[in-house]
Each structure stands twice: as structure tokens, then as C-alpha cells.
Specification:
alpha+beta; transmembrane; Histidine kinase; 70% helix; 2 domains; Heat Shock Protein 90; single chain; two-stranded antiparallel ribbon; 5-stranded mixed β-sheet; MFS_trans_sf; 8% strand
């Protein structure tokens, strides 16, 4: 137990001692004050430490954030059974052992039954308040933790995505300048033409590199222009074929994916007029395919690995659909997922997460509502018992509201933690999961 908790119980003991000594003791003597202090301290510490131990044990074994339903049911059962035992123990020590106003037989008879029941209700009220307070504190901690985690994930994903996109600009410029330097020696006129076309393509690179996704139509148009540049250099040594369905034009792919893959084809394969490199770009379902015949050239310099790995990493940050690579003896194919909508970074299913958050929020309101009902029940019933006993000790009419409302509280608990909407939602999720499989 925390030192702060011990202080609270100590001040509670002193406060109840002064209250009962000043208002409920006819003899204002030092001995009666000590007896009142002893009894108040016993009740405060036994009930306080008992409920505190139960709460801490349940926090370790069944945290609110991990097992909300189980924890709530166990909390209700434990506070009822625990406080029943603790109150009977304290009352037994008070009336039988310390003050000796009752025998063991009298204590367990109906004479002290009402007193015990009244004290149990008071203990349940305090215990329910403490458990509800613990639930709210745990909820706040979990909410703050989740917010911090989501912010860190979002920042990390955005930083990673920006880093990947920033690779495209210098990578494209470096490769284009290499092509241009080769053309200057081989064909100066073509080099001038290449420079003019390169300015148009580079403008597209600058415009698109800051976007998460671009339409297939924009990417294909850019790829055609880039292929014209490559044809300028390689002429009949390279052949390009485009066969993308028009209905796929409004779908999305990561920007400059085709340019990077086309560069890879040229970089890793040799191309001659007698053995041309044939590159095909076509669509199949929700997949954009880039395929080339395999004519592997010997690498003088180790590859930087920016192209394909960059595409794979950018897709992994945007969707759970994978980039597939197929390699055979004579062909190499890369399959890019075409997306139907633009997802946000680090959240491939934002709508589902939003719905999950709404359901969680609704669940928290239901649990809070139950605890308010339970605390109200304990408070009002204790007050009714107190009034009944002090006005008419012969007729115990308080049983009617206690039992009637108690059935309502039990029904509320069963609805929140037993069979209700939560059970229906669980069954719906199970059926949906089966249908997905």
C-alpha cells in the first residue's frame, strides 16, 4: 500500500472518531474517546486495507484495459463477498470482543442482522466508489498512453515516408545525368533532345514526389514520356508495350514506381538490336504488372538498392497489400497493387478504426452508467435503512426498495457484462471473420 493511502485511512479514522464521539456519545470521557478511536481505526483500516488489497490484486491479474468485462464482474463479486466478510469481522470484534454488548448467539441472530446489513451497505458504497475511481484512473492512463503511442507511430511513419520520397529526387537526377553524359559522346543531337524531354519529366518528379499516391493514368502518361527518353538512347535495343485497361486509370499507385522499375530493367539487363529488351506494362485485376525478358548483365558496381526496396517500403506504409516479385529463368515480373482509394499513412483501415473507437467509447459509457447506478443504490438504500431504523424499528419496510432496486442493479450488470449488445457484437464479428476466410 502507498504511504498516501495510509495517511488517508489515518485521517478518516480521526474524522469518524470525532464525529461519533461528539454526536453519538453521552459520556464525554477520555476512555470513551479511546474506545471510539479504536473502533474507528479498526473499521477504517480493516475495510480500507481489505478493499485496497482486493483492488490491487485485481489490477495485477485482470487490468481494466486488458480484460474490462472480466474485471468488472470480478470487482462486483469480490466487493460483495469481501465486504460481507470484513463487516461481519469488524462488527464481531466491536460488539462481542471489545464492547461485549452481545454474545456470539445474539450477534448471529436477527437482532444484529439489520445493523450488519446497514454496515455492509455503507462498506459497499465506499468500495464501489473506490473501484469506479480506479476504473476511471486506469481509463485515463490507457487513453493517454494510446494517444502518445499513436502520435509516435504517426510521426515515425511520416518521417519514414518523407525519407523514402526524398530518395526519388536525387536518384532520378543522378540516373538521368548518367544517361545524358552517355548521349553527349554518342549522339550530341539526341542529347539536346533528351535534355528538353528531361526538363518535362523532372517537373513531374518535383510535382508528384510529395504525394502519397497518384492515379494510374498520371503514372502511365509519365512512363510513356520516360520510355520515349529511353528509346532516344537505346533506339531498337529496347521495346515497350503498354496494355493497361482504361477502367483502371482512376485507381492509385505510389508515384514514380514505374520510373524506378523501368530504370531497374535497363540497369540490370543488357539490350542490343539483335537481342532487344522487351518491357511490358499491363493490368490484371487490381494489379499493375511490369514484366521484362531476363537478359542479366554483369554488374561492375554494386547496386544501391533504392528502386525496388523504395517501392516496397512505401507500399507497406500505405496498405497491407504486398508488392510481389516473380523471377523465372527468362522473365522478371513485379506486381504493384492498385488501390481503389487513398489511405492515410500508418492507417490502412481508418474507417474500421473509427468505428472501433466509437464502439469502445460506447462501452465505456455503459460501464460508467452501471457504476453510477451501483453507487446510487448503495447510497440511497443505506439512507433508507438509517431512516427506517431510527423512526420505526418494528416495521422493516426498507426491504422492499432494497430488493426491488437490487433486482434492477443485477439486471443492469447482466446487460452490461453478460448477455446484451456486447454478446451480439461478438457474434457478429465471429460471423464476419468466418465469411472473410
Amino acid at each position: 500500500m502507498k504511504h498516501k493511502y495510509f495517511k488517508i485511512l489515518l485521517w478518516t479514522s480521526l474524522g469518524t472518531t470525532l464525529f461519533f464521539f461528539l454526536f453519538f456519545n453521552d459520556e464525554k470521557t477520555f476512555s470513551t474517546f479511546l474506545i471510539t478511536l479504536l473502533l474507528s481505526t479498526m473499521y477504517s483500516f480493516v475495510l480500507g486495507f481489505g478493499n485496497g488489497f482486493i483492488n490491487e490484486f485485481l489490477n495485477r491479474k485482470f487490468p481494466w484495459s486488458e480484460a474490462t468485462r472480466t474485471r468488472a464482474v470480478l470487482s462486483i463479486i469480490s466487493i460483495i463477498i469481501g465486504n460481507f466478510i470484513l463487516v461481519y469481522f469488524c462488527n464481531y470484534m466491536n460488539y462481542v470482543v471489545i464492547q461485549k454488548t452481545a454474545t456470539i448467539q445474539e450477534f448471529f441472530s436477527s437482532k444484529y442482522g439489520v445493523t450488519n446489513w446497514f454496515m455492509i451497505n455503507i462498506a459497499l458504497l465506499i468500495s464501489a466508489f473506490l473501484h469506479a475511481k480506479g476504473f476511471m484512473e486506469e481509463l485515463k492512463k490507457t487513453s493517454r498512453k494510446e494517444v502518445v503511442e499513436q502520435k509516435l507511430i504517426a510521426k515515425s511513419a511520416n518521417a519514414q515516408f518523407e525519407s523514402l520520397k526524398n530518395q526519388l529526387d536525387p536518384h532520378f537526377l543522378f540516373n538521368s545525368l548518367n544517361v545524358l553524359s552517355s548521349l553527349i559522346d554518342e549522339n550530341p543531337r539526341q542529347a539536346q533532345k533528351f535534355t528538353a524531354s528531361m526538363s518535362k519529366i523532372y517537373r513531374y518528379v518535383l510535382e508528384q514526389k510529395d504525394k502519397e499516391l497518384v492515379t494510374v493514368e498520371d503514372e502511365i502518361e509519365f512512363a510513356r514520356t520516360y520510355c520515349d527518353l529511353l528509346k532516344t538512347r537505346f533506339e531498337d535495343s529496347v521495346d515497350f508495350t503498354f496494355d493497361v485497361a482504361e477502367e483502371d486509370y482512376q485507381k492509385y499507385v505510389v508515384p514514380l514506381a514505374l520510373q524506378l522499375l523501368l530504370e531497374n530493367c535497363i540497369k540490370h539487363n543488357f539490350a542490343t538490336s539483335s537481342k532487344p529488351l522487351v518491357i511490358k506494362i499491363f493490368s490484371a485485376g487490381n494489379i499493375l504488372c511490369i514484366e521484362n525478358n531476363l537478359q542479366v548483365r554483369e554488374q561492375i558496381k554494386e547496386s544501391s538498392g533504392i528502386g525496388l526496396s523504395n517501392i516496397v517500403q512505401r507500399y507497406s506504409l500505405l496498405t497491407d497489400r504486398n508488392v510481389f516479385i516473380e523471377k523465372s529463368e527468362d522473365h522478371f515480373k513485379v506486381k504493384l497493387p492498385m488501390l481503389l482509394a487513398k489511405p492515410h499513412i500508418a492507417s490502412s483501415e481508418p474507417e474500421d478504426e473509427s468505428e472501433a473507437y466509437k464502439r469502445a467509447q460506447k462501452r465505456v459509457k455503459e460501464i460508467k452508467g452501471f457504476y453510477k447506478n451501483l453507487i446510487s443504490y448503495c447510497t440511497v438504500c443505506s439512507f433508507l435503512i438509517f431512516i427506517n431504523l431510527f423512526t420505526s424499528s418494528r416495521t422493516h419496510w426498507f426491504w422492499f426498495p432494497v430488493l426491488g432496486w437490487g433486482i434492477g442493479v443485477a439486471s443492469h450488470a447482466f446487460q452490461v457484462f453478460g448477455v446484451g449488445e456486447s454478446w451480439q457484437e461478438k457474434k457478429i464479428r465471429e460471423i464476419m471473420n468466418k465469411q472473410k476466410k
